[in-house]
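Good morning C.,

I know you're traveling, so I'll keep this short. The sequence:
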Amino acid sequence: MKNTLKYIILAAAVVFGAASCEKFLDRPSEDSYTTADFYKNDAQVEQGINYLYNSPWYDIIRFYIYGSETMCGNVYQGQNAYSTLTVNGTDQDLKNMAYSLWAVNAQCNTVINNIRNAETTASEAVKNRCIGEALAWKAMTYFFLVRTFGDVPIIHDNTETIKEASYNEVYKVQKADVYEYIILTLEKAMELLPKNAYIGKLNRIDYYAAEALLAKVYLTKAGVEGSLSSGDLAAAARYAKDVIDNSGRTLTPKYSDIFRMTPDKFQQTGEELFTWHWQCKQEAWTSQNSIQCDVGLVGFDENGNLWGDWKGPSIDLQEAFGVSATDDPTKRANLDDRRQATMMLFGDQYDYFWTDMGGFDFYRFFYDDSYAPGGLTANASNKSFGCATGANYCKHLYGDVADHVAAFGYPSFGMYNQLPTHILRLGDIYLVYAEAAFLTGNTSDALLYVNKIRERAHAEPLASVTYEDIWKERRLELALEGDRWYDYVRRSYYDVNACIADLKAQHRSLWAGDLNGVYKNFVTDAQGNYVGPGAHEWDASAITYDPSEDLTDVKPSMFTIPFPTEDVVMNPNVASTAEAVHVDVRETYSYDF
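The tokens, ready to paste straight into the viewer:
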């Protein structure tokens, strides 16, 4: 079998090719240049970095959107290795994710060397900025790696590793040292990146984006030695507050707009910090967003490539928002704008989906045969309601083809759309600051910034704040954004028992009883014709919670996922039982440019 890590190191020079729908996404075609005749001017240097915003990340998506969100208890997809926290090195989504991360690291290293070594007329400012962007993406890559696998090798320069032929001899480096390496990398990125460069444009990484990641890294690193470091917490608070105060960025006023396609919804405020900017062009496989295919309901768009009905937000996540799929939807209390922007429940309506149809109606979608874009019949009345938790994804959906055309001027198709995916944004940094402030004794600022987040969501402000309030607020703000499992990982460094207790207390299972029958009865007459809500009295008495898939056995080791099996076979130094080495990062590695 292929040794993933070795393969990625050796494949470092590959540049994914394709033209783009947007200038921002333009990058050189693989078969039309070599490094000797590219990177000749400012435009080519910029094109040489653009693909780092999409293609190499593509294979992380299913782990990001399902694996991590299932492990943390936000998503239900039946009982499997993710729901039971028993993922092993043979899991395909795990292998794809590892492949993707090592690919990003390799591509970042290669692009940096290409820019530095090219004979070019490009300005120093452009070269520095693009190298800084690549370093920031490299830091993000290692941030994913260390939180997923724990101790990991550091591949500082693929060229050197290839020259030494040491790819099957690399050792895992201790987590604390990996975090120090991430910090070193971000410090260099910030040295090279401009400030306030991209607000209001198709945003790229600038100084403050890198600083925001640095704040989150320090918050995570704070507990890695088994107890919280006051110095790391102070650094997390300092860097986060600088981003909040001086970056020029503000929270997007309407929470749901963060996840919409129209650029002025979020780019004018600069809330996005690190974002996968996808493109929509058929010959550019891996540069497109295909998440809607994985999470969308069959029939939600006309393209016929959706299969997400049976997986969806968990009952526990619903309860965290204060709602239940068993509630009468006409009397449901929506206490927080983030709930409906995160998950669809029976009865929800959306004015930003199916805009050509006057909006999306989640009553009619399942039980009105005449209601679907393009005359689809996938949602005919004999179709059972989707996920067994009674909820489906809303985040990561773009809508139908007309919605895509309205936003971008061209259609989506098949598994291709251009909805951006935010992986670090300002709302997260508000909560990073709140947590770091709380843990260093500044409870007044912690309360202030938690309430700023809640105010945006029209949620009731808190009168006082506890650590558990902040812990929950992070879940509500960032649900289904691939972050929550990593909150458990970092907390497990210093308080694993709390994490275990939290996971074991979750309602991670499904509803027993005829959920579909309850819903259908509520909106159809005796002949099965859709007449709207209230056709019969709401009666969910037949629906009960089935606890059979709840967690009963959680061990500290479960917060670290093993490397892919083929990597371990080729290099036993990365096995779970292999000892990691200590590296003096500042003495061993440098970015001397």
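Safe travels,
E.
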